[in-house]
Amino acid sequence: FAGILALVIFQIGCTQQPSTDLSETAFIPKPVSIDVTGNSFELKESSVIYYEESVEGLQTVAEYLALEIKRTSGVNLKVESTNATPKKGVYFTVVNEDSKLDTEGYELNIGKKLIAIKAKTVAGCFYGVQTLLQIIPEKLHAEDPIEFATGIIRDFPEFGYRGAMLDVSRHFFNVEEVKQFIDFLAMYKMNILHLHLSDDQGWRIEIKSWPKLTEIGGSTEVGGGTGGFYTQEQYTELVKYAQERQITIIPEIDMPGHTNAALASYAELNCDGKARELYTGTEVGFSTFCTDKEITYQFIDDVIRELAALTPGPYIHIGGDESHVTAHDDYVYFVNRVQPIVLKYGKKVIGWDEIANAELVDDATVQFWADVENTTTGVEKGARVIMSPAARAYLDMQYDSTTHLGLHWAGYIEVDHGYTWNPATLVPGVTKENIIGVEAPLWSETVTNMDEVEFLVFPRLPGYAEIGWTAPEKRDWNEYKMRLAKHGKRFEDLGINFYKSKRVPWE
Ligand code: TNX
């Protein structure tokens, strides 16, 4: 009897039959609603992925799904346009009138013959794809059928801004590495990549009117490595790659502090007219642009003009943090002069919470990282807020005292600590109405390669994605950790070097 039982268990374990209960899938972020219909849909080699012909950008989404299915299973599905709902296969459609669908929302209807993904926007369809992909195991064998449990998922995000930041200044990450980072965000329906493009240790974006920024300022990084920079063509390639994944890149030029790389490249930007030495250490707060020289503002005008031309997204980030050697009045004067330059080139201003000490222009956004008073001042001045609390959301904070990568000036952030906070109640006086969303920054003083990026990003990133997407009353650590545990297999199959936190019951 025991032998037969063992055989039965062995067979169940081996047949790879997926559950037909859609609600058992460990989705991250957790969808708004799942209705289970208890059947299964089988994707065959002959299945076609259709997209509504008249919708611009929908073909890219359909092709993205085909490529992901090919990557995981080796199966090559055909992608075709249509102007009528097909009877079988996969079908993408964009509808204008459905009032139940939010701008970024989607409805994923998995029937026995047809998977229909409906949304108001192409972005919504893309999020439907990400949900669908979480139903398929990350690695399939060619002979395995690709089965989907049937049911209907209706879903939309809590916040419109769901992002992460990558500091490419302290250590440089090349185009391929940034693309990989973008893929991580896309998997979890994040829609913002903030790139920290300049700091004391390196200037990373080509500015054609000031070429020494990258020739000199781009040649270093923390620890003495050779640095690097993106040509404008490479940067445009990144913007496009992100766009295809519904991600907006927000470029940051940090100023007036954190500017040593620029001050080393051009002597005239210094008050004493002398170029600074290049810097490869990790101190902060020692550099400043000369706020009372006109050339400073001509320089910034050129930089923002060129950057805005490379930026289809609505925002330019002007930094503004830790300008410890800029006198307060000079700082305020500087931020007041720089903001209109951003507006002049058709973009909106974002700055770290310190910029709230200046007068804020219309539509300015302050990024809360440490100072509650700055942030509430910003709100009083009419600004909106991005929540990036260092003690909860900094991806460069160590997990605990035994994990060595990262810093701990804002404390240790174990996976549960990073997950169990509510952006709308964390800072008294800053409510949901003031907040556009959540961003998890990865500063790179200690991070030198993608293996190290992955260790700090995973498994915390899915949690920040869920905080941005899923309403707080639907989030609970004890339930979330079970879903996260199932994603461990996915991380392994993707070759991601993740931190195996003891607080997560990995399978
Ligand atoms: C503070 S957060 C900084 C960065 C550092 C980071 C390290 C912020 C706006 N400024 O310059 O890289 O801490 O965690």
How would you summarize what this structure contains?
It comes from Maribellus comscasis. Helix content is 32%, strand content 18%.
Topology record:
Blueprint: H1 2-14, E1 33-43, E2 48-52, H2 58-73, E3 78-82, E4 89-94, E5 106-110, E6 114-119, H3 122-133, E7 146-155, E8 161-167, H4 175-187, E9 192-196, E10 198-199, E11 202-203, H5 212-215, H6 232-243, E12 248-252, H7 260-265, H8 294-309, E13 315-317, H9 328-344, E14 348-352, E15 365-368, H10 372-380, E16 384-387, H11 390-393, H12 415-419, E17 435-442, H13 450-457, H14 460-469, H15 477-493
The chain binds ligand TNX.
Catalytic activity: Hydrolysis of terminal non-reducing N-acetyl-D-hexosamine residues in N-acetyl-beta-D-hexosaminides
Pfam family, one: Glyco_hydro_20b
Domain Beta-hexosaminidase bacterial type N-terminal: 27-155
Describe this structure in words.
The longest helix has 17 residues, at 328-344. The protein has 15 helices and 17 strands. Mean pLDDT is 95; it is low at 7-16. It has helices at residues 2-14, 58-73, 122-133, 175-187, 212-215, 232-243, 260-265, 294-309, 328-344, 372-380, 390-393, 415-419, 450-457, 460-469, 477-493; strands at residues 33-43, 48-52, 78-82, 89-94, 106-110, 114-119, 146-155, 161-167, 192-196, 198-199, 202-203, 248-252, 315-317, 348-352, 365-368, 384-387, 435-442. The chain is globular. The protein is α/β, with parallel strands linked by helices and 507 residues long. The chain has 2 domains: 16-155, 2-Layer Sandwich (Chitobiase, domain 2); 161-475, Glycosidases (TIM Barrel). The strands form 3 sheets. The protein has an 8-stranded parallel sheet with strand order 12-9-8-17-16-15-14-13. A 7-stranded mixed sheet has the order 1-7-5-6-4-2-3. The structure holds ligand TNX. The site of ligand TNX has 10 residues, from loops. Ligand TNX binds next to loops. Residues 159-471 form the Glycoside hydrolase family 20 catalytic domain. Its EC number is 3.2.1.52. This is beta-N-acetylhexosaminidase.
